[in-house]
Amino acid sequence: MARRSGVAEALLDEVRLAVGEACSRAVEAHRRRCPDEPVRLELSGTGRRFEVIVSDAVPADDETGGLPQVEKPDEAMEQVWSDETAELGLAVIAGLADDVDISSTPKGVQIRMSWPAEVEIPQ
Fold it and tell me: From CA 22, how far away is CA 74, in angstroms rounded?
């Protein structure tokens, strides 16, 4: 889709990696908090931009940040590892996408990423 939207060949790997990272973060959050809810992926091309939005349904007001309360040391280490991995993933996304906006709402987290298109995309 990115290629057809006019994204330069040199950027396609960055698009793949950033979108994969955003999807992995959302899937992990859902696995822990709301496994029956879908992760939403939107792709669009308008003007000279290709945009991808990955949305999860883990509420921002969840006191555990979408992670379960832990009682066992092994579970605590898993939560710390997951938190650090999620933060690293967001840093990776920010480094790969040309423009990134991360919004946390009561309905979930939305990661909006975009890249320049070489040609104007018809609307």
Answer: 26
Domain count across the chain: 1
Which band of pLDDT confidence, cut at 50, 70 and 90, is reported for residue 85?
A: low
111 domain residue, yes or no: no
Are the beta carbons of 45 and 32 closer than 8 angstroms?
no
In a domain, 96, yes or no: yes
Please return the burial class of 38, using the count of CB atoms within 10 Å of its CB with bins 0-12, 13-18 and 19+.
exposed
Task: Convert the pLDDT of each residue in 1-16 to its tens digit.
Answer: 999 999 999 999 999 9
pTM above 0.85, yes or no: no
Q: What is the DSSP string of 66-106?
A: T-----SHHHHHHHHHHHHHHHHHHHHHHHHSSEEEEEEET
